[in-house]
């Protein structure tokens, strides 16, 4: 379908509002309708017209949106109804300067804008604040774009500067997702599309985990209006099935340490020069150097099957041209089934280790090897779980043009998001099995894929048997009830007054339960399982994209098993059926946070017909928020040493705590834009915005980790309901040159000073008067007998054999590896247990500044074009890798760039896009709850799409996501300190679309 789009340029002040109205129409999906030329004598429509289609029409509409907005706004407009440029909204957003994305399973999921992470970017749907739930990030505020299909989306608007009429919550940006409205597109419009999807990551999984080789996507949209233009209906629906996977190697719990090179902690740190074992260290870290030691390492294969269903119904009624009412219902459901298998080992930090080091003030080993007096376990882990996320929204909107100068609008909606288990085995689980046959164990970090070798392992004579397990059941529900009333009053010829009030009632509730068996030393006998239950697979074949996958010393076998079958056999063998299922009846933690916000705003905008014409918009927004937190408390009652390195906690009955807080914010804003000449603008903006803390940062109630560690103690977390939002003072400057209808060159500078940042703190303290057997009388007697602190099997064997029957000590038998089984409970005379308690406080400030360079250029009428942008972001608040204390740093801060090549004619449309993101700090706490940095390494991805128009109605599309099969990596205090590497694979799509 052709579109006739006109260049919108600066006109005298009294005509600017007319020009903006025309531009706004172009920026919405209504541009999909071919327009007839207006009165040729009208100065606002006398500019030359160019008929453009498809990608170029979308680019031009996007420029009009950007050019005629208050403040700095970017966006993306759909090519046509039901035809958004990307299959994933997050992947569309990453093409915008200043926007980068976080990927999950090779797909865009959440966005970072101008260095501010997903929790500090507000996502709206048609101007409404939407609830969000995500079990992988329980109680965060970040919106997961993978829940929304792109077919029903007409445009994305990214507001990078504050405006009085914008809801609060986005410091980086406020992102408004707009859906199609039938009365904006008169007449009947409909299309249906189908795709066949082949995700190559599915091909790199063991046979028993693989999904379908090719999966379907179908979508359709129908929009129609009555002949008189009074009634309109639009219906859209889509269904997507995707079978994929990813394979990962890494240290799930991070590194032990860091330790100072001069440290002499017995059994944990490296031996000092001259001590036994020091001869096995090559290039030993110096006395003032910091070094870390691997704790546990594993290889995992992960199969993901997803079904996503989206639907929307829109009904509109316009009884008179001055009044438009809209009723809309939106529904999305995403089901994800996960199957995973893992092979892993635990390093005990023995004094008999052999290691080599790279040198430097902060180090991680190049190679690390341990030997053991008794055989250790090779852990064979599997999981099979599923989750379901459902989003529902019903909204009503009415717009009334009461007089030629007064326009009023009322909008209300009720929206919910709910996530929970969709499997009888819970929302996440693990069955841990083991062969107790591991001798010397070495890991080599000099390859892209860390190489684990265990030459003495013997799984034939020491078959796999069941060990520990856990079954999680998580549930989260968020609800938003929101009402907004606003108006626009035109004053004189070139001024307007915008005003409004609103009320938002938001709640977030999450529950969590855990059923765990701490029989890590062995729960069953290998004879309890048929020989066929564990299937051997060639491990290196699942990491062929990573250097080191074919290393001859790599332990070559990954074992897989059917989770349901093994779970049933283990439950039968142990006689503990309830212990191998999740607890759906009650929760270990239950937390709810409610926020009630009343708001009002006022802004005044006017045109100034000066030597350099400019427009100003001065506004203020006032908000009052009341917070109520209700949390379940589960007090700890005891600690029991039940396996080699782990100390499970015992808990008493639940209690609840309630806390209230409130805060008020006054948020001014000023936006100026100067027409330097008809094709060039200069913008300046100043104002304040806020970003609300995460729900889990605010939810009260102390939560204890269920297992403490022999070496590091326990973990706990507690929120702070009195946390205030981060308040940011923003300055922005933008120069924009619209040198052609579809071309622009722009440079934007920004500076954000943020106060009240909720810094994460980790403190060491004792809780609930809990005593640990580590360091107690029995423990010290075992040390005196000759055991070392690192040889926990020796310690346990001595205590269980020597003190069996005495208070707290119960021997229950002998494990298959010859070590004793039993429990050692902390006694009142033992030391108090140490817990690392994570909490939050408004005690941090940070500054972020940066620049965005953007160019969009079409090469005449050749059909070729290019989009390119680069974003530079920096902050003086950086993580110091040489500092072992708790630190505050901004997460997600990174430079990014995009390069997109375009070709389009009447038949073909081709787009090749490269997206690059520099390394960034992803977390300040590692997988074991310790204060330690987690960095995501530099990543670049290439996507390709090709479209062919068979005729005006039928078109075909071919797409490739991650064409070059890029892999992802995370590291710790140094770039050599690999935490994990992940291989997925390209995704291929072939589709067709028919317009009626």
Explained architecture:
With 996 residues, this protein is mainly beta. Helix 6 packs across helix 7 (792-802). 7% of the residues lie in helices and 53% in strands. Among the domains are: 771-831, no CATH class; 859-996, no CATH class. Residues 1-50 have low confidence and may be disordered. The strands form 8 sheets. The protein has a 29-stranded mixed beta sheet that branches. The chain has a 5-stranded mixed beta sheet with strand order 3-8-9-6-7. The chain has 7 helices and 53 strands.
Spell out the blueprint of helices and strands:
Layout: E1 3-6, H1 13-27, E2 49-52, H2 54-67, E3 73-77, H3 89-93, E4 99-104, E5 107-113, E6 121-125, E7 128-129, E8 153-159, E9 173-179, E10 189-199, E11 215-225, E12 231-250, E13 255-260, E14 281-282, E15 290-294, E16 296-320, E17 323-346, E18 354-356, E19 362-363, E20 367-370, E21 376-403, E22 406-421, E23 428-438, E24 441-444, E25 451-453, E26 465-491, E27 495-517, E28 535-538, E29 557-560, H4 563-574, E30 589-608, E31 614-633, E32 636-641, E33 646-651, E34 655-677, E35 680-691, H5 695-698, E36 703-704, E37 707-709, E38 714-717, E39 726-740, E40 743-765, H6 777-784, H7 792-802, E41 809-814, E42 820-825, E43 835-858, E44 864-874, E45 896-904, E46 908-917, E47 920-925, E48 931-936, E49 939-949, E50 954-961, E51 968-971, E52 978-983, E53 987-995
Parallel strand pairs: 6-9, 14-18, 15-19, 38-43
Antiparallel strand pairs: 1-2, 3-8, 4-5, 6-7, 8-9, 10-11, 10-53, 11-12, 12-16, 12-52, 13-15, 16-17, 17-21, 18-20, 20-24, 21-22, 21-23, 22-26, 23-26, 24-25, 26-27, 27-30, 28-29, 30-31, 31-34, 32-33, 32-42, 33-37, 34-35, 35-39, 36-38, 39-40, 40-43, 41-42, 43-44, 44-45, 45-46, 46-49, 47-48, 48-51, ...
């Amino acid at each position: 379908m052709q579109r006739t789009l006109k260049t919108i340029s600066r006109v005298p002040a009294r005509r600017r509002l007319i020009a903006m109205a025309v531009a706004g129409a172009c920026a919405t999906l209504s541009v999909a309708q071919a327009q007839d030329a207006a009165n040729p004598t009208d100065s606002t429509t006398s500019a030359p017209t160019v008929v453009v289609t498809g990608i170029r029409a979308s680019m031009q509409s996007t420029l009009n949106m950007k050019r005629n907005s208050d403040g700095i706004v970017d966006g993306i407009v759909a090519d046509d109804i039901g035809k958004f440029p990307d299959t994933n909204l997050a992947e569309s957003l990453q093409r915008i300067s200043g926007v980068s994305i976080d990927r999950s399973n090779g797909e865009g999921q959440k966005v970072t804008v101008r260095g501010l992470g997903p929790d500090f970017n507000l996502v709206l749907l048609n101007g409404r604040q939407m609830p969000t739930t995500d079990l992988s990030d329980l109680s965060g505020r970040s919106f997961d774009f993978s829940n929304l299909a792109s077919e029903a989306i007409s445009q994305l608007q990214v507001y990078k500067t504050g405006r009085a009429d914008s809801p609060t919550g986005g410091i980086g940006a406020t992102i408004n997702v707009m859906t199609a409205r039938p009365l904006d597109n008169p007449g009947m419009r409909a299309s249906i599309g189908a795709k066949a999807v082949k995700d190559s990551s599915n091909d790199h999984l063991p046979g028993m985990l693989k999904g379908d080789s090719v999966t379907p996507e179908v979508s359709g949209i129908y929009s129609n209006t009555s002949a008189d233009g009074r009634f309109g209906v639009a219906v859209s629906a889509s269904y997507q099935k995707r079978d994929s996977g990813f394979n990962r190697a890494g240290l799930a719990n991070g590194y032990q340490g860091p330790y100072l090179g001069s440290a002499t902690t017995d059994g944990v740190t490296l031996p000092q020069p001259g001590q036994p074992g020091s001869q096995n260290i090559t290039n030993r870290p110096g006395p003032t150097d910091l070094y870390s030691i691997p704790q546990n390492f594993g290889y995992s294969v992960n199969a993901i099957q997803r079904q996503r269903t989206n639907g929307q119904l829109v009904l509109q009624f316009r009884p008179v041209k001055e009044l438009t009412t809209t009723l809309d219902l939106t529904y999305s459901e995403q089901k994800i089934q996960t199957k995973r298998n893992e092979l892993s080992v635990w390093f005990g930090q023995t004094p008999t280790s052999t290691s080599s080091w790279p040198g430097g003030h902060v180090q991680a080993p190049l190679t690390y090897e341990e030997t053991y007096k008794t055989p250790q376990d090779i852990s064979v882990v599997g999981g099979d779980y599923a989750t379901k996320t459902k989003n529902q929204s019903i909204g009503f909107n009415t717009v009334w043009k009461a007089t030629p100068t007064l326009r009023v609008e009322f909008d209300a909606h009720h929206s919910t998001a709910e996530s929970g288990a969709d499997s009888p085995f819970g929302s996440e689980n693990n069955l841990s099995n083991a062969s107790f046959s591991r001798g010397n164990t070495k890991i080599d970090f000099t390859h892209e894929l860390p190489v684990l070798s265990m030459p003495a392992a013997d799984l034939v004579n020491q078959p796999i048997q069941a060990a520990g397990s856990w079954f999680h059941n998580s549930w989260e529900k968020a609800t938003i009830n929101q009402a907004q009333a606003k108006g626009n009053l035109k004053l004189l010829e070139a001024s307007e007054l915008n005003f409004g009030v609103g009320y938002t009632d938001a709640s977030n509730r999450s529950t969590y339960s855990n059923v765990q068996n701490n029989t890590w030393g062995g729960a069953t006998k290998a004879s309890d399982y048929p020989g066929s239950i564990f299937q051997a697979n060639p491990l290196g074949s699942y990491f062929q994209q990573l250097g080191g996958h074919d290393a001859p010393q790599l332990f070559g076998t990954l074992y897989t098993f059917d989770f349901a079958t093994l779970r049933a056999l283990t439950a039968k063998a142990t006689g503990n059926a309830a212990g191998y299922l999740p607890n759906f009846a009650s929760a270990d933690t239950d937390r709810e946070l409610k926020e009630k916000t009343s708001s009002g705003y006022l802004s005044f905008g006017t045109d100034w017909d000066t030597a350099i014409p400019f427009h100003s918009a001065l506004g203020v927004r006032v908000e009052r928020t009341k917070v109520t937190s209700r949390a379940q408390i589960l007090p700890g009652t005891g600690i029991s040493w039940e396996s080699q390195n782990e100390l499970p906690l015992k808990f008493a009955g639940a209690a609840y705590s309630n806390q209230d807080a409130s805060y008020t914010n006054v948020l001014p804003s000023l936006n100026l834009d100067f027409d330097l000449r008809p094709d060039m603008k200069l913008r300046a903006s100043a104002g304040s915005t806020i970003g609300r803390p995460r729900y889990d940062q605010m939810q009260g109630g102390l939560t204890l980790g269920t297992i403490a560690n022999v070496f590091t103690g326990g973990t706990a977390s507690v929120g702070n309901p009195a946390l205030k939002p981060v308040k940011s003072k923003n300055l922005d400057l933008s120069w924009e040159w619209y040198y052609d209808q579809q071309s622009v060159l722009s440079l934007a500078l920004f500076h954000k000073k943020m106060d009240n940042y909720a810094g994460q703190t980790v403190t060491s303290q004792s809780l609930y008067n809990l005593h640990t057997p580590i360091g107690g009388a029995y423990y010290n007697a075992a040390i005196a007998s000759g055991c070392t602190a690192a040889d926990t099997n020796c310690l346990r064997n001595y205590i269980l054999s020597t003190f069996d029957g005495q208070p707290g000590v119960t021997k229950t038998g002998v494990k298959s590896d010859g070590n004793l089984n039993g429990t050692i409970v902390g006694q009142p005379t033992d030391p108090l247990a140490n817990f690392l308690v994570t909490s939050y406080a408004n005690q941090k400030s940070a500054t972020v500044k940066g620049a965005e360079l953007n160019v969009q250029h079409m090469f005449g009428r050749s059909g070729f074009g290019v989009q390119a942008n680069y974003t530079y972001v920096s902050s003086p608040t950086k993580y110091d890798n040489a500092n072992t204390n708790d630190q505050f740093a901004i997460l997600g801060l990174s430079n990014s760039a995009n390069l997109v090549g375009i070709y389009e004619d009447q038949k073909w449309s081709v787009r090749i896009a490269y997206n690059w993101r520099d390394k960034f700090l992803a977390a300040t706490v590692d997988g074991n709850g310790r204060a330690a940095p987690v960095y995501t390494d530099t990543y670049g991805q290439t996507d390709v799409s090709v479209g062919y128009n068979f005729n005006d109605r039928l078109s075909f599309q071919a797409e490739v996501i991650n064409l070059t099969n890029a892999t992802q990596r995370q590291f710790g205090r140094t770039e050599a300190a690999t935490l994990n590497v992940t291989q997925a694979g390209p995704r291929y799509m072939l589709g067709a679309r028919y317009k009626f």
